[in-house]
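[step 3/7] fold_predict: job queued, chain A
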Amino acid sequence: MKEIELSVGSRITRWLIKQIARAGIDIDVFLVTREGRSPGAERLTVDSRFTTGFAGLEDIPELVRVEPDTDPLLCAQRFRDGLLCYAIKNDGRIMAKMWCDLKECHDPHRRPLTQREAYLFSAYTDPAARGQNLAPFLRQQFYAALRAIERDSIFSHTYYFNIAARRFKQKIGAEDEALYVNVTVMGRFSRRFMLRRYQLRDTRDLVSIVST
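[step 4/7] structure written:
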């Protein structure tokens, strides 16, 4: 497995981006990442006391408790808009969660989704439960739940300079599909450019994980 790290050039680029931001020009470099194509993530297990399933409006207090910055009104609106939230619980308490939109991809690469696509975002694990393999297990279970409703093209965004996030995505077998830069001037004008498209692995070389 190739180790992900910032080169000297990348560190300089990140520093320059921070300096440019002071002039009102925000530059986001991010990857569109495909998930759920690797069979490796399918073999994860956790302690039997943990349960998984979709959260609902009744779980909003728990979503706020586990991640205090969560806006309960935003959660309620997401549920009303048909967004999905998948969670790992321990005796009714949410230990980890992740949101999914079936209608559109969010910033910084906003676009409508097709009938087979799903966009994952806003994952969080209770700090007290970290180190128990919950984050990758949550994704494994969420992939299966999405494939059960014929959403087998699953992806997310990864900020290029977030090395911890990129290492995690690598660990769960996610694949980078494309590299973009998004430029926003004074918070008003925004343009996005593709810098690179990556070659995804041929699914014939993988154990099939798509529901038939």
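[step 5/7] annotate
Strands lie at 25-35, 50-54, 84-90, 93-101, 104-105, 111-112, 117-125, 153-159, 175-185, 189-197.
The two ends are 30 Å apart (CA to CA).
exit 0
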